Amino acid sequence: MNFKIGDKVSFLNEKGNGTVSKIINKTTVGITIEDGFEIPYAVSELVLIYNGAKPELHLENTVHTIVSSEIKSNQHQSHQEMSLKGIKKTEQEKISVAFSPEKINDITNSDINVWLINNTAYQLLFTYSLFQNGNFKTLETGTAKPYESLLIETVDRKELSDFSTFKIEALFFDVKEHEHQPPISEMVKLKPIKLYKENAFTENSFIPEKALIIDVYRMNDYFEETNFQTKLDLSKILFQKQSQSASPKRSKQHAINNPAYEMEINLHIEELLDNYKGMSNAEIILVQLKHFQTALDTSINEHYRKLIIIHGVGNGRLKQEVRTILSSYQNLQFHDASYSKYGFGATEILIS
Question: How many domains does the chain have?
């Protein structure tokens, strides 16, 4: 028998019952028992009590009604209805969060609408939480239909300074037969200053307003680590080719030995990207190396005397890649940066 998430089952060889909460493979499923623990069971050891499709459908309608009743503004409801028309199913299936100003012509004084975009064929049970005072505070829960944009909150402009880290948790489900999708719990960091810039909001195919859109989760966006390793190796070669020539050019001497001619760049991925969940280690390193190369080129072209690269300790891979690139330059000296200031996590580059 093919069980689905939400099916109520009893055990063939022991007392008790539970609910199917995970499809592990064709012969094994995860059963959540009354105590809340999830235990793997062979399908052959389970007996179906009732199919979970109808209760899920009922849950969807019930929660959707609750969420809708809590949206007090008629304007917000009209936005929600209009947004359903805009999603393009041809785009990559993903879950995103969008931020749109209520007054596009007066952004600095406008409150901000927050949207959950479900650009997948699945229905979602979701929670939306904000990080405050060291803990997450759940602000909204509900359901999102397939290919639906849902207005979930309007943030007062005066409160934007506290709106920097939020979390989206979601369960994928469908009343019809469907492939299992693992639940997600993604934390996203947003720099509130972006919500003060008019050019941060762009036309999109999800909601009828200009918006800043951050992808939270992308389905089927998995790549073999070996493929990214190949890209990483090619990228290293490219970096080295850019920095070398038949007769390497040397940067001009600094007119003055001014401490202002120094640059510091932090390569920790959370400093470079708002959302990096779902990225492989190799993909993250590619992003970090790109930022490093840009900073290095700028330092050389602008005749800086010193460049500090904060790469962290970790497993040492990023540091190794950075120093491999530096070794291809003939006019640079580099060594560990000040231990008292950076520990073992930075490299100091002297540009002659």
Answer: 3
